[in-house]
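Contributing new complexes? Match this layout with iron/sulfur cluster.
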Amino acid sequence: ENPLLSVKELTKYYHAKKGAVVKAVDNVSFDIMRGETFSLVGESGCGKTTCGRTILGVYPKTSGNIIYDGLETSTFSKKQKKVFSKQAQMIFQDPYSCLDPRMTISSIIQEGIHEHFSMSAAQKHERVLDLLNKVGLRSDFVSRFPHELSGGQRQRVGIARALALDPQFIVCDEPIAALDVSIQAQIINLLISLQRELKLTYLFISHDLSMVRHISDRIGVMYLGSIVELSGTNDIYRNPLHPYTQALFSAILATNIFSGSENKRIRLEGEVPSPVNPPSGCKFRTRCQYAKDVCSSEIPTLKEIETGHFVACHLY
Ligand code: SF4
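Output block (do not edit by hand):
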């Protein structure tokens, strides 16, 4: 089976002041299979959001390949571009900032429908009611405005708007970060059930490792623009290999009062270095307790340590 999305050696550099180059996404590769949820996790500023937006063409890539359904996206014809803009959608962190406050929920959900489908007004109305039902909102929401909705309801509208175009692939960019903890699980469960029902493929972007666990099939951990570890969800939580992943995951495992385990929280020393001038060799070496000589001279590449479990570290 071919992956729906294949990202190969993707880089996205920005030009900052004084000729400095910010390597926001630095040589990132991964595949996403149809119907799968692949998550990119890491602290803010690690490049996960830039990566998702570059894949969707919101930002132009610097180099590398983004292959969607077997075709390189940068060589799309006009028609293929239009199909891609319909099939690949995004759900945002803050649904409020991207919902026009003067538009009713109905017109917000319909926005993209005009461009991609020829439907009568009655058909569009039916479609909106069906979408509201799918995301768990009552039909009387059609005439409401965004400010009348709670955060969770607004995120449901954001999801309905993405679904309006019958997408195959959705980039979920921190979709629960702005929500109360009690609402977060509801939105995650909604995304999971929609995925099953509509056979959706997700790229899920989050810094919240406890929520990511519920929705992900596989996870890539990013640090300073690069993936340092990539594995199936169970493997990576049970047996994190990269020192950065271990530190990141120890924070949630240590607070898991139900596990009864004696996990010690690993404290990360020092600040995240600037992506303008990252450390030579392994970018994590300035904060790594296991760093050795080779770590400053050679960039570790992702190696498959167990089936499907990749890590970029000289310890392995
Ligand atoms: Fe630490 Fe070296 Fe591994 Fe980097 S390559 S994580 S510095 S041991």
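Reviewers usually confirm one structural detail per submission. For this one: Residues 242-243, 282, 284-285, 288, 290-291, 295, 300, 313-315 surround iron/sulfur cluster (CB under 6 Å).
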